[in-house]
Amino acid sequence: MAQLIVDCGATKTDWCVVEGKQTRNVRTAGFNLAHTSADTLKGILDAAAEQIGPDIQEVHFYAAGLVGDSPVDLASWFPGAAIEYASDMLGAARAVCGREKGVAAILGTGANTCSYDGQNIGWKVNCGGFIIGDEGAGSVLGKLFITDYLKAYMPQDILREFQDKYQLDYVTVVKNVYSGPAPARFLGGFAPFILSHYQDSEYVRNLVDGNFRGLFERTLSQYDKELPVGVVGGFGNACKDILLRLGEEYGVRFSRFMASPVEGLIEYHAL
């Protein structure tokens, strides 16, 4: 039986076809069901279905922005398949916790967390998005850095290197943040540059650690400290050592780190 596991985030969507012990992966642009236009969504789904092909019997669709019923009917692209629609948060929990109790944390462009009882999402701290929340996310780190950049409130060597690399002026930044199609993705895109200076810049270390301290103090502190925390997301996985160090300080025990939940979801659905 051919299964299709879909993990959709703001930046990218991974489509994994699982047939026996064989897997095949397709990657497309990301989307958020809460605000991506119908035309854009259709284009992404058309491109994915063309690469995946027919004969899919089962679909597990985990998507950002899914609240209540799905606004798209995947039966139009995968006719005859049994389809499960679920949030990306449930996908993350299943990936890092399996069928055990725990706390799941998505740390990518955005951030989200929940408690998980081994089957369902339990209580969760509202994430708020990158404007009024999302502590620990790549987009929030980018927002903090860009704020300092626009005010020239950072070491001059880092400011000059950033200017040379990105050639960003004030108007371009403001347009991308306030009227661009994907402001969180725009801000999160600066995370690799920022992290590249983590070892050699006290300014960057304080910025990165401060972003994660917000996650520990405002979000993770509200969950049961006895529950292990599993992390999903490229940004969180890249910062594994930082999170482990800060976790010891805050009494948070991490169980698993994954750049993408797909590997864990393959394990989950194979059981």
Descriptive key words:
Nucleotidyltransferase, domain 5; 12 helices; 5-stranded mixed β-sheet; Transcription Termination Factor Rho, Rna-binding Domain, Chain A, Domain 1; 4-stranded mixed β-sheet; 42% helix; 271 residues; globular; alpha/beta
Describe the SSE topology.
Layout: E1 2-8, E2 12-19, E3 22-29, H1 38-52, E4 58-63, E5 82-87, H2 88-97, E6 102-107, E7 111-116, H3 129-132, H4 138-150, H5 156-166, H6 170-178, H7 183-188, H8 191-195, H9 202-218, E8 229-232, H10 234-238, H11 240-250, E9 254-258, H12 262-270
Parallel strand pairs: 1-4, 4-5, 6-8, 8-9
Antiparallel strand pairs: 1-2, 2-3, 6-7
Summed up, what is this model?
This protein is α/β, with parallel strands linked by helices and 271 residues long. It is built from 12 helices and 9 strands.
If you had to describe this structure to a student in words, what would you say it looks like?
With 271 residues, this protein is α/β, with parallel strands linked by helices. Among the domains are: 2-91 and 262-270, Nucleotidyltransferase, domain 5 (2-Layer Sandwich), CATH 3.30.420; 132-209, Transcription Termination Factor Rho, Rna-binding Domain, Chain A, Domain 1 (Orthogonal Bundle), CATH 1.10.720. Helices cover 42% and strands 21% of the residues. It is built from twelve helices and nine strands. The protein has helices spanning 38-52, 88-97, 129-132, 138-150, 156-166, 170-178, 183-188, 191-195, 202-218, 234-238, 240-250, 262-270; strands at residues 2-8, 12-19, 22-29, 58-63, 82-87, 102-107, 111-116, 229-232, 254-258. The strands form two sheets. It has a five-stranded mixed sheet, with helices on both faces. The chain has a four-stranded mixed sheet with strand order 7-6-8-9, sandwiched between helices. α2 crosses α12 (262-270) and α9 packs across α11. The two termini are 14 Å apart.
